[in-house]
From TrEMBL:
Domain of life of the source: Bacteria
Keywords noted in UniProt: DNA-binding, Transcription, Transcription regulation
Family, similarity comment: Belongs to the LysR transcriptional regulatory family.
HTH lysR-type domain segment(s): 7-64
Protein name from the UniProt record: Transcriptional regulator GcvA
Listed SUPFAM superfamilies: Periplasmic binding protein-like II, Winged helix' DNA-binding domain
């Protein structure tokens, strides 16, 4: 079905302003035209509709019965136009940037903290890109990334963000008190993509702790560290985990660190990396926020 032909938008806008302000002069001032122009637009609209829209009175105009039917529809319509235009303008004013990080770091460290970023940067939309594969920052896949390892990272600025220490953690219900209690529970393992002699494994931890006779390769294995964390929270065993990633769980009491020692991997911090070109304001804001969060943690 074809839509009926509507009067010119200028005439409708002139009518809406005159009806709302009850004055051709005030409508002219609002629309930055002359009162004569308003009168001309109203006359064109009356001719097209075949009805009178205003009763001219001293210093003001009053709506006719026909105009009283038309005005609320136009008023609501122009209000809706104004809201839509304002929303579009606000979206254009918003800025966005993408931060890439591993699946476990995104889930356990970034996601619980994004509310504070929104509070600190309300006009900046943060997009989290979770992947265990390093992204190509030069290609624009992300603006910055959290990398875990020794480095170096050619072509990127790298800032040490969080130092890593690993220790046994478990659900407090397991009741562990000493390293020998590990023999009574399953060991939870996070598989590393590129293990080295320094990789935080149960074998390395037992060597440091002086624990003998533990089946260090037995237990449950996970390719995603966040799954190992969830298994530990659920009480399925004891996991050797980054204390930085489970800091919130330790603080909440859903996990406990029953005993020492801790594996300190000085060469494997979490790094904030971004391209060597001068960072734009959004990246600088993200960097400052990450630094503050890391310091608080």
């Amino acid at each position: 079905m074809s839509r009926p032909r509507l009067p010119p938008l200028g005439a409708l806008r002139a009518f809406e302003a005159a009806a709302r302000l009850a004055s051709f002069k005030r409508a002219a001032d609002e629309l930055s035209v002359t009162p004569t122009a308003i009168s001309h637009q109203i006359r064109l609209l009356e001719e097209q509709l075949g009805v009178r829209l205003f009763e001219r009175q001293t210093r003001r105009v009053a709506l006719t019965a026909e105009a009283a039917l038309l005005y609320p529809v136009l008023r609501d319509g122009f209000d809706a136009f104004a809201e839509a235009v304002a929303a579009i303008a606000a979206r254009r004013r918003r800025r966005a940037l993408t931060l890439s990080a591993t699946l476990s770091f995104t889930a356990k460290w970034l996601v619980p903290r994004v509310a504070s970023f929104r509070a600190a940067q309300p006009q900046l939309d943060l997009r989290l890109h979770a992947s265990d594969d390093p992204v190509d920052l030069a290609a624009g896949v992300a603006d910055a990334a959290i990398r875990y390892g020794r480095g170096p990272y050619p072509g990127l600025i790298a800032e040490r963000l969080i130092e890593n220490r690993f220790a046994p953690v478990c659900n407090p219900r397991l009741g562990l008190r000493r390293p020998q209690d590990l023999r009574e529970h399953a060991l939870l393992h996070s598989e590393w993509r590129h293990p080295t002699a320094d990789t935080p494994t149960w074998r390395n931890w037992c060597a440091l702790a002086g624990v003998d006779g533990l089946e260090v390769d037995a237990g449950l294995r996970f390719t995603d560290e966040s799954h190992a964390i969830q298994a530990a929270i659920a009480g399925h065993g004891v996991a050797l985990l980054s204390l930085a990633l489970v800091a919130d769980d330790l603080a909440a009491g859903t996990l406990v660190q029953p005993f020492a020692p801790e594996l300190a991997l000085d060469g494997y911090p979490h790094w904030l990396v971004y391209p060597q070109r001068a960072p734009r304001a959004e990246v600088t804001a993200l960097r400052d926020w990450l630094r503050a969060q890391a310091a608080a943690a």
